[in-house]
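Journal club prep, notes for RB
We'll compare a predicted complex against what the paper describes. Inputs for the cytidine-5'-triphosphate case:
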Amino acid sequence: MLAGKHILLGVTGGIAAIKIPLLIREFKKQKADVRVVMSRAAKEFVTPLSLSTLSGHTVITEMFPEQTAPSVASSTWHIELGMWADVTLIAPATANFLAKLSHGIADDALSTLMVALRCPVILSPAMDDEMWRNPITQRNISSLKEVGYCVLPPEEGELASGLIGMGRLPEIPSLVQFTNKILEKSNRDFHKKKILITAGPTYEPIDAVRFISNRSSGRMGFALANASALRGADVTLISGPSNLQTPRNVKRVDVETSEEMFNAVTQYFSKSDVIIMSAAVSDFTPVKSFPRKLKKENISSDTFSLELKKNKDILTHLGQKKRKGQFLVGFALETDNELANAKRKLQEKNLDLIVCNNPLEEGAGFTVETNKVTLIDKNGKIEKFPVLQKFDVANEILDSVLHRTKKYG
Ligand code: CTP
């Protein structure tokens, strides 16, 4: 997998930088082409000379070429390297680097390059245990994951301080294996495919401040958008209200109500090759929505009834309009008789594939980072998966879509 690949290696200033010469040697052994950009602090731990000797290329350490090396002639090197790279690995990634990256700060060579990258980026944090557990570091890691950075968590063990804890840079084989996995998952097999994904809940207004909704966080749909973009697709994500950040290279359309979602989906539907409805669309909406806040003193009895009407089922509508060559994926959120209900939805809504999940199962549900799903296709073929990260579930769904579009045309 690594042979002929362009690996951009970013090195920041932590003691684990002393392992990087061995990592470059391993990448080279597997016939990858490696280019290195270092932060100034990294030079305190490993010299640019050793890394350029091993990689066979000038190592960039400064933003402006005259400060680096004569062979870095252009002041747009960060754009050129950004286009050259198939994958970028930052190892070790320090707490300071993660903080800068999560805020888009571009004040030196490596941090500027990060903003210009187009390829998948792997972050391999390594630091002291307390620094890793620090809530600010964890917050930065979460928001970097949300926007699509792939994080290889540090390992537990003896740290440079002599203390035992989380924070060690994984060993060279783990770094190489993870880089391989991300390259495999970003092999552009969805290049030129237009994918429409819905995510999150909808809000159905009762009055000016209240609404009916559900517990969906949007995580599964956002993971699908991220994975599709990494695989080269042209992704439109139609999202109900969600606090999640938009993954890199994804076009996001925000909606609130199921009616707005219907309008947005039908606008993009005809141009889409693959449509994945992972949104938890409200099935009902209040018949009347009050423009001002309802006051309880105006309600004389102890009970108050809200009249609801059924919403249009977006997926059923798409199933009726689907043209040859379009691939339609639905979700079935079930707490009982999962498979039977999912199969019924698959048929009734004229789907090609349905993803069945049960929020009551361990490792599944709205707010967690994992999910446990079963895929059923229109020929009745069933594939069950164990609990996986939502990003990995997303890739399983995409693999399944690709396999079936190739097989059935
Ligand atoms: N869906 C939709 N429009 C709706 C309701 C649901 O497009 N108004 C889609 C969802 O995005 C999902 C699929 O239909 O892909 C199944 O949703 P789910 O909530 O599991 O089932 P429902 O069809 O709404 O039926 P029920 O709530 O009775 O299980």
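Talking point for the session: The radius of gyration is 24 Å.
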